[in-house]
Amino acid sequence: MLRFSTPKFQLSDFWSNTLASTIGTIVGIVLTFGTSYLIERHESANHERDAALMVIHNIDKFCNLLEGTVESLEEADSINGLIINYASIDNVEIPDSTLSLFFSHIFHRDFYAHDNTANNIFSNNIEIWQDIANKSFIENVGQCFNAMSLVQKLKDEYNSMSIDAYSSYKRNVEFVQTDGINLKQYVQKVIQNVEVKLLIDRLHYIYLPSFKESLNALRKQNAENKLLMQITDKELDDIFNPNQSLAL
């Protein structure tokens, strides 16, 4: 019986080197692109977290300022209510210190302005949002920015109304002859001024409730933002208030 042996296939040195080089090139390409992809993913994740940290911190800062506004206006509203209810009753004594507090609060205005730079950056730069994969977070932040814008408009309205009331008070009460009347009687004249009455009324029924409701909503939404992005208050303090964190 004839036996045929299978010829062994051998690569020439040229083809061996070429094949090895090709395989090495392919592996190099895979490693390069794979590494680049991992680096880009890592950088994208870092950008996402940095953006989230800045947005959440910005909203927290706005809430802290708004909380101060609410506290001041709550005190003013409380004093206004006391004056409205009792200043016109002759046999009720109101301490001069309380009447003086009324004057220090009635024309109170918020002169601080929240820094909207971060809001503008994040609202107008689509590239930043492209780094953020969590769509629920993006939607939540958009609602927060809208609420913050509404609060700022309401503050501007209230400040404008306060200026109008003060101007009316100066024209119609302060420059009118008031000799021979005590502080309580003088306050009665002030709260009878149409612009002042409107300011007191709008503060109680419109502005203060709106500010309080907005503050509660923003606090709640930003707490949800932190959960969505797994960001803690401690992390925020360590980054944005490092000296305070060390003191604690």
Notes on the protein architecture:
79% of the residues lie in helices and 0% in strands. The chain is built from 9 helices and no strands.
Give, in order, the helices and strands.
Answer: HHHHHHHHH
Q: Gyration radius, to the nearest Å?
A: 34 Å
Q: Beta-sheet strand percentage?
A: under 5%
Distance between the termini: 95 Å
How much helix, percentage-wise, in residues?
Answer: over 70%
Net shape: elongated
Count of alpha and pi helical runs: 9
What value does the average pLDDT take? Answer: 79
Structural class estimated from helices and strands: mainly alpha
Total beta-strand segments:
0
Poorly predicted segments: 29-44
**Biggest beta sheet summary:** none
Short description:
With 248 residues, the chain is mostly helical. Helices cover 79% and strands 0% of the residues.
Features:
single chain, 248 residues, mainly alpha, 9 helices, 79% helix, elongated
Secondary-structure blueprint:
Layout: H1 13-86, H2 96-106, H3 117-124, H4 126-130, H5 135-174, H6 183-191, H7 194-229, H8 233-240, H9 242-247
Helix pairs in contact: 1-2, 1-5, 1-7, 5-7
